[in-house]
Specification:
Ubiquitin-like (UB roll), binds magnesium ion, 18% strand, binds guanosine-5'-triphosphate, 2 domains
Length: 373
Protein backbone atom coordinates (compact mmCIF):
# COMPACT_ATOMS: atom_id res chain seq x y z
CA UNK A 1 0.00 0.00 0.00
CA UNK A 2 1.44 3.28 -1.13
CA UNK A 3 0.25 6.51 0.49
CA UNK A 4 1.35 9.89 -0.80
CA UNK A 5 1.43 12.63 1.80
CA UNK A 6 0.41 15.90 0.27
CA UNK A 7 -1.14 19.29 0.94
CA UNK A 8 -0.12 22.93 0.74
CA UNK A 9 3.38 24.08 1.57
CA UNK A 10 4.14 24.36 5.26
CA UNK A 11 1.04 22.40 6.30
CA UNK A 12 3.35 20.00 8.10
CA UNK A 13 3.68 17.22 5.52
CA UNK A 14 7.26 16.36 6.40
CA UNK A 15 6.47 16.59 10.11
CA UNK A 16 3.59 14.13 9.64
CA UNK A 17 5.77 11.92 7.43
CA UNK A 18 8.30 11.76 10.26
CA UNK A 19 5.51 10.98 12.73
CA UNK A 20 4.28 8.12 10.55
CA UNK A 21 7.64 6.62 9.69
CA UNK A 22 9.87 7.45 12.65
CA UNK A 23 12.36 8.93 10.19
CA UNK A 24 13.92 12.31 10.79
CA UNK A 25 13.71 14.38 7.64
CA UNK A 26 14.38 18.08 8.00
CA UNK A 27 11.33 20.29 8.53
CA UNK A 28 11.54 23.99 7.77
CA UNK A 29 9.43 27.05 8.62
CA UNK A 30 9.68 28.15 4.99
CA UNK A 31 8.18 26.31 2.00
CA UNK A 32 10.40 23.91 0.09
CA UNK A 33 10.05 24.39 -3.65
CA UNK A 34 10.06 21.71 -6.34
CA UNK A 35 12.52 23.78 -8.32
CA UNK A 36 14.98 23.21 -5.50
CA UNK A 37 16.65 19.93 -6.12
CA UNK A 38 14.40 17.81 -3.93
CA UNK A 39 13.29 14.29 -4.68
CA UNK A 40 10.30 12.50 -3.17
CA UNK A 41 11.26 10.66 0.00
CA UNK A 42 9.93 7.25 0.88
CA UNK A 43 9.47 5.55 4.24
CA UNK A 44 8.32 1.95 4.63
CA UNK A 45 6.59 1.09 7.88
CA UNK A 46 5.53 -2.23 9.34
CA UNK A 47 1.83 -2.28 10.06
CA UNK A 48 1.50 -3.27 13.70
CA UNK A 49 -0.79 -6.27 14.08
CA UNK A 50 -1.13 -8.06 17.43
CA UNK A 51 -2.38 -11.14 15.56
CA UNK A 52 0.97 -11.45 13.80
CA UNK A 53 2.74 -11.07 17.16
CA UNK A 54 0.61 -13.85 18.62
CA UNK A 55 1.07 -16.19 15.65
CA UNK A 56 4.76 -15.56 15.81
CA UNK A 57 4.83 -16.53 19.49
CA UNK A 58 3.02 -19.76 18.60
CA UNK A 59 5.11 -20.83 15.61
CA UNK A 60 8.43 -19.33 16.67
CA UNK A 61 9.35 -18.93 12.99
CA UNK A 62 12.77 -17.96 11.64
CA UNK A 63 11.17 -14.89 10.17
CA UNK A 64 8.13 -12.76 10.97
CA UNK A 65 6.86 -10.48 8.24
CA UNK A 66 4.31 -7.76 8.86
CA UNK A 67 2.29 -6.06 6.17
CA UNK A 68 3.86 -2.75 5.24
CA UNK A 69 2.78 0.65 4.12
CA UNK A 70 4.91 2.98 2.06
CA UNK A 71 4.63 6.70 2.74
CA UNK A 72 5.93 9.31 0.33
CA UNK A 73 6.75 12.91 1.18
CA UNK A 74 7.34 15.57 -1.41
CA UNK A 75 6.95 19.30 -1.96
CA UNK A 76 3.58 20.97 -1.46
CA UNK A 77 0.83 21.85 -3.87
CA UNK A 78 0.76 25.50 -4.90
CA UNK A 79 -2.50 27.39 -5.17
CA UNK A 80 -3.21 29.23 -8.39
CA UNK A 81 -5.85 31.32 -6.63
CA UNK A 82 -3.26 32.52 -4.11
CA UNK A 83 -1.02 33.61 -6.96
CA UNK A 84 1.52 30.80 -6.57
CA UNK A 85 3.62 29.30 -9.34
CA UNK A 86 1.58 26.21 -10.18
CA UNK A 87 4.02 24.82 -12.72
CA UNK A 88 5.48 22.55 -10.05
CA UNK A 89 2.12 20.97 -9.32
CA UNK A 90 2.50 18.63 -12.30
CA UNK A 91 5.37 16.88 -10.58
CA UNK A 92 3.32 16.41 -7.45
CA UNK A 93 0.27 15.25 -9.41
CA UNK A 94 2.28 12.54 -11.14
CA UNK A 95 3.33 11.27 -7.76
CA UNK A 96 -0.25 11.28 -6.47
CA UNK A 97 -1.53 9.40 -9.51
CA UNK A 98 0.79 6.59 -8.66
CA UNK A 99 -0.47 6.22 -5.07
CA UNK A 100 -3.22 3.99 -3.65
CA UNK A 101 -4.43 6.87 -1.54
CA UNK A 102 -3.55 10.41 -0.68
CA UNK A 103 -2.96 11.61 2.86
CA UNK A 104 -3.95 15.25 2.70
CA UNK A 105 -2.27 17.21 5.51
CA UNK A 106 -4.31 20.29 6.35
CA UNK A 107 -2.80 22.95 8.55
CA UNK A 108 -4.90 23.49 11.64
CA UNK A 109 -2.11 24.67 13.96
CA UNK A 110 -1.53 28.37 14.50
CA UNK A 111 2.04 29.58 14.55
CA UNK A 112 2.99 33.03 13.32
CA UNK A 113 6.58 31.98 12.81
CA UNK A 114 5.49 29.48 10.14
CA UNK A 115 4.43 31.22 6.95
CA UNK A 116 1.10 30.13 5.44
CA UNK A 117 0.97 30.25 1.62
CA UNK A 118 -2.74 31.11 1.64
CA UNK A 119 -2.67 33.73 4.38
CA UNK A 120 -3.68 32.44 7.79
CA UNK A 121 -4.80 29.16 9.31
CA UNK A 122 -8.18 28.19 7.86
CA UNK A 123 -8.55 24.43 7.43
CA UNK A 124 -11.83 24.39 5.52
CA UNK A 125 -10.61 26.99 3.03
CA UNK A 126 -7.47 24.91 2.50
CA UNK A 127 -9.47 21.73 1.96
CA UNK A 128 -11.58 23.46 -0.67
CA UNK A 129 -8.60 25.18 -2.36
CA UNK A 130 -6.69 21.92 -2.48
CA UNK A 131 -9.66 20.25 -4.12
CA UNK A 132 -9.73 23.08 -6.67
CA UNK A 133 -6.11 22.40 -7.61
CA UNK A 134 -6.80 18.71 -8.12
CA UNK A 135 -9.82 19.61 -10.23
CA UNK A 136 -7.62 21.83 -12.39
CA UNK A 137 -5.12 19.01 -12.70
CA UNK A 138 -7.84 16.62 -13.90
CA UNK A 139 -9.29 19.20 -16.24
CA UNK A 140 -5.92 19.68 -17.88
CA UNK A 141 -5.64 15.94 -18.41
CA UNK A 142 -9.14 15.70 -19.87
CA UNK A 143 -8.50 18.59 -22.28
CA UNK A 144 -5.25 17.07 -23.46
CA UNK A 145 -6.87 13.71 -24.00
CA UNK A 146 -9.83 15.19 -25.91
CA UNK A 147 -7.44 17.11 -28.10
CA UNK A 148 -5.53 13.95 -28.85
CA UNK A 149 -8.73 12.12 -29.80
CA UNK A 150 -9.62 14.91 -32.15
CA UNK A 151 -6.18 14.88 -33.79
CA UNK A 152 -6.36 11.14 -34.29
CA UNK A 153 -9.81 11.36 -35.83
CA UNK A 154 -8.63 14.06 -38.20
CA UNK A 155 -6.00 11.60 -39.34
CA UNK A 156 -8.81 9.15 -40.02
CA UNK A 157 -8.07 6.92 -37.03
CA UNK A 158 -11.37 6.00 -35.46
CA UNK A 159 -11.48 6.47 -31.68
CA UNK A 160 -13.74 4.83 -29.12
CA UNK A 161 -16.87 7.03 -28.89
CA UNK A 162 -17.55 5.84 -25.34
CA UNK A 163 -14.17 7.19 -24.28
CA UNK A 164 -14.96 10.57 -25.74
CA UNK A 165 -18.39 10.63 -24.10
CA UNK A 166 -16.80 9.83 -20.77
CA UNK A 167 -14.23 12.59 -21.13
CA UNK A 168 -16.93 15.10 -21.98
CA UNK A 169 -18.91 14.05 -18.95
CA UNK A 170 -15.81 14.49 -16.81
CA UNK A 171 -15.08 17.87 -18.35
CA UNK A 172 -18.59 19.09 -17.59
CA UNK A 173 -18.27 18.11 -13.96
CA UNK A 174 -14.79 19.54 -13.55
CA UNK A 175 -15.78 22.81 -15.18
CA UNK A 176 -18.50 23.06 -12.55
CA UNK A 177 -15.76 22.63 -9.97
CA UNK A 178 -17.03 19.20 -9.02
CA UNK A 179 -14.66 16.39 -8.14
CA UNK A 180 -15.10 13.22 -10.13
CA UNK A 181 -15.59 11.23 -6.94
CA UNK A 182 -18.78 13.23 -6.42
CA UNK A 183 -20.28 12.09 -9.74
CA UNK A 184 -22.05 8.81 -10.53
CA UNK A 185 -20.38 6.66 -13.15
CA UNK A 186 -21.62 3.33 -14.45
CA UNK A 187 -19.42 0.24 -14.53
CA UNK A 188 -18.30 0.73 -18.10
CA UNK A 189 -17.38 4.34 -17.43
CA UNK A 190 -15.50 3.30 -14.34
CA UNK A 191 -13.52 0.79 -16.35
CA UNK A 192 -12.68 3.38 -19.00
CA UNK A 193 -11.63 5.82 -16.29
CA UNK A 194 -9.09 3.57 -14.64
CA UNK A 195 -6.10 4.28 -16.90
CA UNK A 196 -6.50 8.04 -16.47
CA UNK A 197 -5.84 7.85 -12.72
CA UNK A 198 -7.84 11.01 -12.12
CA UNK A 199 -6.64 12.96 -9.10
CA UNK A 200 -10.14 13.64 -7.81
CA UNK A 201 -10.91 9.90 -7.68
CA UNK A 202 -7.93 8.82 -5.59
CA UNK A 203 -9.13 7.83 -2.10
CA UNK A 204 -8.30 10.61 0.30
CA UNK A 205 -7.55 10.66 4.01
CA UNK A 206 -7.67 14.06 5.64
CA UNK A 207 -5.18 14.76 8.42
CA UNK A 208 -5.95 17.87 10.44
CA UNK A 209 -2.56 18.92 11.72
CA UNK A 210 -3.53 20.52 15.02
CA UNK A 211 -1.49 22.56 17.46
CA UNK A 212 0.24 21.19 20.54
CA UNK A 213 -2.33 22.75 22.89
CA UNK A 214 -5.32 21.42 20.98
CA UNK A 215 -5.16 17.68 21.60
CA UNK A 216 -8.67 16.54 22.61
CA UNK A 217 -9.82 20.18 22.81
CA UNK A 218 -13.46 21.18 22.16
CA UNK A 219 -12.21 23.41 19.30
CA UNK A 220 -10.81 20.38 17.51
CA UNK A 221 -14.00 18.45 18.10
CA UNK A 222 -15.91 21.36 16.52
CA UNK A 223 -13.47 21.50 13.61
CA UNK A 224 -13.87 17.78 13.05
CA UNK A 225 -17.66 18.16 12.94
CA UNK A 226 -17.39 21.12 10.58
CA UNK A 227 -15.07 19.24 8.26
CA UNK A 228 -17.33 16.19 8.09
CA UNK A 229 -20.31 18.43 7.53
CA UNK A 230 -18.49 20.12 4.66
CA UNK A 231 -18.00 16.79 2.87
CA UNK A 232 -21.49 15.58 3.65
CA UNK A 233 -22.88 18.70 2.04
CA UNK A 234 -21.27 18.18 -1.33
CA UNK A 235 -21.62 15.80 -4.24
CA UNK A 236 -22.65 12.35 -3.19
CA UNK A 237 -22.14 13.18 0.45
CA UNK A 238 -19.22 10.82 0.91
CA UNK A 239 -17.14 11.76 3.93
CA UNK A 240 -13.48 10.71 3.79
CA UNK A 241 -11.75 9.65 6.98
CA UNK A 242 -10.75 12.77 8.92
CA UNK A 243 -7.94 12.27 11.44
CA UNK A 244 -6.92 15.08 13.78
CA UNK A 245 -3.39 14.77 15.09
CA UNK A 246 -0.57 17.00 16.24
CA UNK A 247 2.27 16.38 13.81
CA UNK A 248 4.88 18.03 15.94
CA UNK A 249 4.19 15.94 19.04
CA UNK A 250 3.55 12.73 17.12
CA UNK A 251 6.91 13.20 15.44
CA UNK A 252 8.60 13.33 18.83
CA UNK A 253 6.67 10.25 19.95
CA UNK A 254 7.69 8.32 16.86
CA UNK A 255 11.30 8.84 17.80
CA UNK A 256 10.96 7.35 21.29
CA UNK A 257 11.47 3.70 22.23
CA UNK A 258 8.03 1.95 22.30
CA UNK A 259 7.68 1.72 26.11
CA UNK A 260 8.46 5.42 26.59
CA UNK A 261 6.16 6.31 23.68
CA UNK A 262 3.27 4.50 25.40
CA UNK A 263 3.77 6.45 28.59
CA UNK A 264 4.03 9.73 26.72
CA UNK A 265 0.81 9.01 24.80
CA UNK A 266 -1.02 8.23 28.06
CA UNK A 267 0.17 11.48 29.63
CA UNK A 268 -1.10 13.45 26.66
CA UNK A 269 -4.42 11.64 26.54
CA UNK A 270 -3.72 10.24 23.05
CA UNK A 271 -5.31 6.80 22.76
CA UNK A 272 -3.36 5.54 19.80
CA UNK A 273 -0.26 6.93 18.09
CA UNK A 274 -0.65 8.56 14.69
CA UNK A 275 1.50 5.82 13.21
CA UNK A 276 -0.98 3.14 14.27
CA UNK A 277 -4.10 5.17 13.67
CA UNK A 278 -3.27 6.06 10.12
CA UNK A 279 -2.50 2.46 9.20
CA UNK A 280 -5.86 1.38 10.56
CA UNK A 281 -7.76 4.21 8.92
CA UNK A 282 -6.12 3.68 5.53
CA UNK A 283 -6.86 -0.05 5.64
CA UNK A 284 -10.50 0.76 6.24
CA UNK A 285 -10.60 3.53 3.64
CA UNK A 286 -9.09 1.31 0.97
CA UNK A 287 -11.15 -1.73 1.93
CA UNK A 288 -8.10 -3.81 2.70
CA UNK A 289 -7.86 -6.93 4.84
CA UNK A 290 -5.04 -9.19 6.00
CA UNK A 291 -4.66 -12.91 5.75
CA UNK A 292 -1.80 -14.92 7.19
CA UNK A 293 0.47 -17.75 6.22
CA UNK A 294 2.14 -19.57 9.08
CA UNK A 295 4.90 -22.10 9.58
CA UNK A 296 8.27 -22.75 11.17
CA UNK A 297 10.04 -20.77 8.46
CA UNK A 298 7.85 -17.73 8.35
CA UNK A 299 4.75 -16.14 9.76
CA UNK A 300 3.58 -13.55 7.31
CA UNK A 301 0.74 -11.04 6.89
CA UNK A 302 -0.55 -10.41 3.38
CA UNK A 303 -2.67 -7.49 2.30
CA UNK A 304 -5.55 -7.93 -0.15
CA UNK A 305 -8.70 -6.05 -1.08
CA UNK A 306 -11.94 -7.16 0.56
CA UNK A 307 -13.67 -9.56 -1.82
CA UNK A 308 -10.47 -11.18 -3.10
CA UNK A 309 -10.87 -14.85 -4.00
CA UNK A 310 -8.64 -17.57 -2.61
CA UNK A 311 -7.32 -18.08 -6.12
CA UNK A 312 -6.22 -14.45 -6.47
CA UNK A 313 -4.85 -14.43 -2.95
CA UNK A 314 -2.70 -17.42 -3.89
CA UNK A 315 -1.35 -15.38 -6.76
CA UNK A 316 -0.20 -12.71 -4.34
CA UNK A 317 2.14 -15.26 -2.82
CA UNK A 318 3.39 -16.81 -6.04
CA UNK A 319 2.11 -17.20 -9.57
CA UNK A 320 2.88 -20.95 -9.37
CA UNK A 321 0.52 -21.31 -6.44
CA UNK A 322 -2.19 -19.52 -8.39
CA UNK A 323 -1.58 -21.61 -11.50
CA UNK A 324 -1.45 -24.94 -9.69
CA UNK A 325 -4.15 -24.10 -7.13
CA UNK A 326 -5.88 -27.19 -5.77
CA UNK A 327 -7.55 -25.88 -2.62
CA UNK A 328 -7.06 -23.68 0.38
CA UNK A 329 -7.02 -24.94 3.95
CA UNK A 330 -8.47 -22.12 5.99
CA UNK A 331 -8.87 -21.50 9.69
CA UNK A 332 -9.80 -18.16 11.13
CA UNK A 333 -7.36 -16.52 13.53
CA UNK A 334 -9.99 -16.58 16.30
CA UNK A 335 -10.69 -20.28 15.81
CA UNK A 336 -6.99 -21.11 15.97
CA UNK A 337 -6.55 -19.10 19.13
CA UNK A 338 -9.65 -20.66 20.72
CA UNK A 339 -8.03 -24.04 19.97
CA UNK A 340 -5.08 -22.99 22.10
CA UNK A 341 -3.09 -22.01 19.03
CA UNK A 342 -2.91 -25.70 18.10
CA UNK A 343 -3.64 -26.46 14.44
CA UNK A 344 -4.15 -30.19 15.18
CA UNK A 345 -6.80 -29.37 17.75
CA UNK A 346 -8.45 -26.86 15.44
CA UNK A 347 -8.61 -29.63 12.84
CA UNK A 348 -10.10 -32.10 15.33
CA UNK A 349 -12.72 -29.53 16.25
CA UNK A 350 -13.64 -29.22 12.57
CA UNK A 351 -12.55 -25.61 12.37
CA UNK A 352 -10.11 -26.06 9.48
CA UNK A 353 -12.10 -25.72 6.28
CA UNK A 354 -11.25 -26.80 2.76
CA UNK A 355 -12.10 -24.03 0.35
CA UNK A 356 -12.01 -23.75 -3.43
CA UNK A 357 -10.83 -21.08 -5.86
CA UNK A 358 -13.86 -18.85 -5.48
CA UNK A 359 -13.78 -18.70 -1.67
CA UNK A 360 -13.76 -15.06 -0.58
CA UNK A 361 -10.84 -14.46 1.76
CA UNK A 362 -11.79 -12.93 5.12
CA UNK A 363 -9.80 -10.70 7.40
CA UNK A 364 -7.79 -12.85 9.80
CA UNK A 365 -7.89 -16.05 7.75
CA UNK A 366 -4.89 -18.31 8.17
CA UNK A 367 -4.44 -20.05 4.84
CA UNK A 368 -2.42 -22.99 3.70
CA UNK A 369 -2.57 -23.26 -0.09
CA UNK A 370 -2.39 -26.72 -1.65
CA UNK A 371 -1.06 -26.56 -5.17
CA UNK A 372 0.51 -28.66 -7.84
CA UNK A 373 2.78 -27.47 -10.63
N1 LIG B 1 3.44 24.61 16.14
C1 LIG B 1 3.42 23.63 15.26
N2 LIG B 1 4.24 23.70 14.25
C2 LIG B 1 4.22 22.70 13.36
C3 LIG B 1 3.35 21.58 13.46
N3 LIG B 1 3.56 20.78 12.41
C4 LIG B 1 4.54 21.37 11.68
N4 LIG B 1 4.93 22.53 12.26
C5 LIG B 1 5.97 23.46 11.79
O1 LIG B 1 5.63 23.95 10.52
C6 LIG B 1 6.79 24.12 9.71
C7 LIG B 1 6.58 23.38 8.40
O2 LIG B 1 6.56 22.00 8.67
P1 LIG B 1 6.98 20.95 7.55
O3 LIG B 1 6.69 19.61 8.12
O4 LIG B 1 8.34 21.22 7.07
O5 LIG B 1 5.90 21.33 6.46
P2 LIG B 1 5.80 20.81 4.96
O6 LIG B 1 4.36 20.75 4.65
O7 LIG B 1 6.60 19.58 4.80
O8 LIG B 1 6.44 22.01 4.18
P3 LIG B 1 7.01 22.03 2.67
O9 LIG B 1 7.66 20.71 2.43
O10 LIG B 1 7.96 23.15 2.66
O11 LIG B 1 5.84 22.27 1.81
C8 LIG B 1 7.95 23.59 10.53
O12 LIG B 1 8.60 24.69 11.12
C9 LIG B 1 7.28 22.74 11.57
O13 LIG B 1 8.02 22.66 12.76
C10 LIG B 1 2.48 21.52 14.59
O14 LIG B 1 1.70 20.56 14.78
N5 LIG B 1 2.55 22.56 15.45
MG1 LIG C 1 8.18 19.13 3.51
Amino acid sequence: MKLAITGFSNSGKTTVFNALTGLELETTPYPVSASADVEPRTGVVKIPDPRVDRLSSIYLPKKTTYATVEYIDYVGITSAAAGGDVSQNTKVFNLLRDADAVVHVVRAFRDDSVMHPLGGTDPLRDIASFEDELILGDLELVEKRLQKIEEQEKKGRKQNPADRRLLLKCRNALEEETSLRDIEFNDEEKRLMLPYQFLTTIPEIIVLNIGEGDINSPEVKALLDKTEKYFRGKGRGAVPPVVPLCGKIEMEIAQLPPDEAGEFLDDLGIEESAMHRLCRVSYEALGLISFFTVGRDEVKAWTVKKGTSAHRAAGRIHSDIERGFIRAEVVSYDDLISSGGDMVRARERGLVRLEGKTYEVRDGDIINFKFNV
